[in-house]
Structure formats: structure tokens, C-alpha cells
Write a structure and sequence with these properties.
CATH superfamily of the largest domain: Glucose Permease (Domain IIA)
Radius of gyration: 22 Å
Helix content: under 10%
CATH architecture of the largest domain: Distorted Sandwich
Largest sheet: 12 strands, mixed
Number of domains: 2
Shape: globular
Number of strands: 27
Number of helices: 3
CATH topology of the largest domain: Glucose Permease (Domain IIA)
Strand content: 35-45%
Order of helices and strands: EEEEEEEHHEEEEEEEEEHEEEEEEEEEEE
């Protein structure tokens, strides 16, 4: 099933029409002085999601709109056409009423450094509420979040065509879509049993994050017998079951970045303020290590305890320790944040969607083993264990 901005459309076939469509948005007109920008930068990469029947994908992006003209514009409709091999496979159009509810009165800014973090901080309040109308003044910028979700691989487009119809013409942007082919065989970066606290499904923080490298990341924690992540005083880091556990290299690699010396958050729940983050944006990730693997792929291990032993240039093997689980940086409690990215800097790199192998999924009394040669996205909200547990059956979607 495909969905765009909350509107459901039929499965691919002839281009479907949704109830929010406006026929006039198909007409050709004069060029609208409107600059369109998609974030993250093209090509857009579909995010694989774990499903018991086989992988599903979501494709989401922010659209920034900037009026480069000398007068205000009224936006009347926005259409998105998904294409595959040149043929349209789905289409959705949003009329003025829907646009007024979806538009935000500020552009989305990807956080990469101190300056971009400061700009993002100023626009936070405006991005939380609907603009309420479709007017865009001269020099003004707006933004809109779009989603294509729960797609099978054979439903994925290879191009998106965006068209905005206004009172003085229209603007168009075509965006390539490419599924990432992962080169590095990744294992879990932990031993024993853990819990996938968060992934990158719609509505989760990672999926809506303005940090480009974190769009497909995972948070791993540990739950006890009573489904609590701590025992004792919840304000103390040492009470958390994940705290101080060894974090392991997910694959062979070279250490290319080490960031150390960030104090852990205690009492638990205390996090850096926006003012602190703007002074040292790199501290948002806490203490971290980045490893370089095959074909420019990198794994980043964030929110570690201070006192890292690795140094840049060191070689590590899969399963060797890179640090210990902590609660440093922008972290609510002790956990591991792991992500796959295309460079050594967790703020500046682009995100890559990862898959992992050699782990057991625990679900309702079932033990399902995902082998190394058939890696899968991690199952959000489920417990997992490294390796193949006794009695586990092969996962065969």
C-alpha cells in the first residue's frame, strides 16, 4: 500500500487518483518563480523495514519551497507522480485545503555544523504547527513533509516528479530514487539479548530527524524481566541494564573518528540544552567511534561512555570492542545508537539504510534466526539476540 502525506492510494497500475486531487494541477502553465528543494539530497533512498512476510519500504522527504519572485504567490495544489522505468505507477495531488494543513512556515535545515544547528533551532517552533494558509511571500520559504510508505520492492519508483501549481504558473522538480546496495556484511554490535528501542519508522524521532546521517539509524537497549530498562534508582546511569555493556564492531574496519571526553547525563533524563548544542554540536552524539568499511560505508557508534581506548588508524575485527554503552550527548537513557553512513562525520555524512545478519528475533515464543548471508532490517520494538539461539528456526519470509 502506498501513502503520501497520510493519503492512501491503490497499488501500482495505471496512475491512481486520490480524493484530494485537483484536475487543474495537470495543466501546463507559465514557470512559477518557486525554487523547490528536496531533503535529504537526491538520490532519495528507500528505507527498508522489517516485516514477517518480507521487507517493506518507506520513502520520506522534506520539500522546501522558496519564492524567488517579487510578489506573493498563492499555492493551489501539489502533485507527486511516482515513476518506474518512465511509466507512472502512482499519483497523489493535494489541494489548497490540504496544503494549508501540511505546510510549515519555515524551511527544513539539515544539521551539519554550528551555523545550521542555530538556524534549525530558530525554526523549531514554526515547524511544529501548520501554517494555516497557502500564501508564500517574496523571499519567504516554506516546507512540507511527504511520505510514501509500506511499499514492496516491486512497487518502488525510480523517480519522483513533483509539481506545484500556483496562481501565476507552476514549478516542477524530478528526483531520482535509488535503493542502496549494502556492501558491508553487518552483525549486531552487541552480545547477548537486547531490545530494538527505536528504528526509523514513520513517527519515530530518527525518521523525522534533521540530522542527515541519522535517518535510518537504530537505538538498542536492554529490558529486564518486568519489561523495564533499569533496576533501582532511575536517575542513576548505573541502574540501567544496558549501561557499561561492551559495544562491538559490527564488521571489520578502520577507526577513522573518535570523539571522547563528553560527560554522561546524570540524573538520567537530563540532556544538553539547545544553547549547549550550538556551542559544540558534535557533542550531540556524545562519545562516539566511527569505523570505515567497504565501498565507503561507515558505521557510527554513539552515546558511549567516556574513556575510549581506540585511536584513529587502528584496525578492528568484527566482534571486537569499540567502547562501552553509555548515556552521553543527546540521550534519554543508556543505550547504543548505531547508524550506517557514507563518511566519517556523524553530523555531515549522509545516511545509508543498514541490514544486519547473524541474529535471532524473539517474538511471542518464536525464535527466528536471520543468517549472515540474508541480512534484514532490525525489527523495531522486538527483543533480539546475537547469533543463533538454541531452538531457533531459519527466518524465511
Amino acid at each position: 500500500m502506498a501513502a503520501l502525506a497520510g493519503l492512501a492510494c491503490p497499488a501500482p497500475g495505471p496512475p491512481p487518483r486520490c480524493s484530494a486531487s485537483l484536475a487543474s494541477s495537470r495543466s501546463r502553465g507559465a514557470a512559477l518563480p518557486l525554487e523547490l528543494q528536496v531533503l535529504p539530497a537526491a538520490p532519495l533512498r528507500p528505507a527498508p523495514l522489517f516485516a514477517f512476510g518480507g521487507e517493506l519500504f518507506q520513502l520520506r522527504f522534506h520539500l522546501n519551497l522558496r519564492n524567488r519572485g517579487e510578489r506573493a504567490l498563492e499555492l493551489r495544489a501539489l502533485s507527486l507522480r511516482a515513476r518506474r522505468a518512465g511509466a507512472a505507477i502512482a499519483e497523489v495531488e493535494l489541494g489548497a485545503a490540504l496544503l494549508a494543513r501540511r505546510l510549515r512556515a519555515a524551511p527544513v535545515v539539515l544539521v551539519r555544523d554550528r551555523q545550521s544547528l542555530a538556524i534549525a533551532a530558530r525554526g523549531r517552533a514554526l515547524l511544529r504547527r501548520a501554517k494555516g494558509d497557502t500564501r508564500i511571500g517574496p523571499g519567504e520559504s516554506l516546507s512540507l513533509l511527504h511520505e510514501l510508505s509500506l511499499l514492496r520492492r516491486d512497487e518502488l519508483p525510480d523517480e519522483l516528479e513533483l509539481r506545484v501549481l500556483g496562481d501565476a504558473g507552476e514549478a516542477e522538480l524530478r528526483v531520482p530514487v535509488r535503493e542502496h546496495v549494502q556492501r558491508t556484511r553487518l552483525a549486531l554490535p552487541v552480545s547477548g539479548r537486547w531490545w530494538v528501542m527505536a528504528a526509523h519508522r514513520l513517527g519515530e524521532d530518527h525518521a523525522e530527524d534533521a540530522v542527515a546521517s541519522q535517518l535510518y539509524s537504530y537505538d538498542l537497549g536492554v529490558l529486564g524481566a518486568e519489561l523495564a530498562s533499569y533496576r533501582g534508582d532511575p536517575r542513576r546511569n548505573a541502574s540501567y541494564l544496558a549501561w557499561d555493556r561492551p559495544i562491538l564492531a559490527a564488521a571489520d574496519g578502520e577507526v577513522v573518528t573518535v570523539h571522547d571526553g563528553v560527560a554522561e547525563n546524570e540524573p538520567v533524563g537530563m540532556r544538553p540544552s539547545w544553547r549547549d548544542a550550538q556551542r559544540r554540536p558534535e557533542d550531540l552524539a556524545g562519545n562516539f567511534v566511527v569505523l570505515r568499511h567497504e565501498a565507503g560505508e561507515h558505521t557510527a557508534y554513539l552515546h558511549l561512555r567516556p574513556g575510549l581506548a581506540l585511536r584513529v588508524g587502528a584496525r578492528v575485527r568484527r566482534g571486537e570492542p569499540v567502547g562501552r554503552c553509555g548515556n552521553s550527548g543527546n540521550s534519554r537513557e543508556s543505550h547504543l545508537h548505531i547508524q550506517l553512513q557514507d563518511g566519517p562525520d556523524p553530523l555531515r555524512a549522509a545516511a545509508l539504510p543498514p541490514r544486519f545478519g547473524d541474529f535471532t528475533l524473539l517474538s511471542g515464543g518464536l525464535k527466528l534466526y536471520v543468517p549472515p548471508d540474508r541480512p534484514q532490517p532490525l525489527p523495531a520494538g522486538h527483543p533480539i539476540a546475537a547469533g543463533r539461539l538454541e531452538g531457533a528456526v531459519l527466518f524465511a519470509p
